[in-house]
Known about the structure:
Strand content: 15-25%
Order of helices and strands: EEHEEEHEHHEEEHEHEHH
Number of domains: 2
CATH architecture of the largest domain: 3-Layer(aba) Sandwich
Radius of gyration: 18 Å
Structural class: alpha+beta
Oligomer: single chain
Amino acid sequence: xxxxxxxxxxxxxxxxxxxxxxxxxxxxxxxxxxxxxxxxxxxxxxxxxxxxxxxxxxxxxxxxxxxxxxxxxxxxxxxxxxxxxxxxxxxxxxxxxxxxxxxxxxxxxxxxxxxxxxxxxxxxxxxxxxxxxxxxxxxxxxxxxxxxxxxxxxxxxxxxxxxxxxxxxxxxxxxxxxxxxxxxxxxxxxxxxxxxxxxxxxxxxxxxxxxxxxxxxxxxxxxxxxxxxxxxxxxxxxxxxxxxxxxxxxxxxxxx
Length: 256
């Protein structure tokens, strides 16, 4: 059984999570309040909250963990055409942190691959909006003619970006935001984006699973770095991404 925690209890380590043969593989703990201090503790341990309305807070450390090495991001032919068209058209722009809470709320309303309803419940919206105001949560937003049409948000600590959710109100708008995040991460020496759970959509763009041990070892390397203070998007970053296409990086990777 997972451990029940109170607000004064530390989170157990990820390795204590329920195994693959349990009814809730990856579940580390149950309970506590969803504060930004608790979230900071959790993400530094590779743990994240995921629960439905009416449930207590459920804390997870999935094994394996889905990650996107930014050097391996796959820019398909169709996406490359979309990005070039977006980058070259007046009125199309990427904004960072311009409407972060609106992005979180839009993600809460967006359908999720393989899921009914949403895990971005009101308590999650409130906690991550507050964490954004404290400088830890950031959004990459796709704007066309002054309208927010897609985007994503996530958590940044040191040289790590933990992706949370995406939404799109126009075709490929979330992919454009993800491509912008990848380009920003490449430019700022952030080698990996955490995707938490495996989806076919993310796998098609270069994400892959790694073991919990490999993921936690990576966190030990990157979380000690100074936090980024420059959260702007330079349109010139499109040039590097479109030139690079599908890179061949290898951090981190499980042994074959």
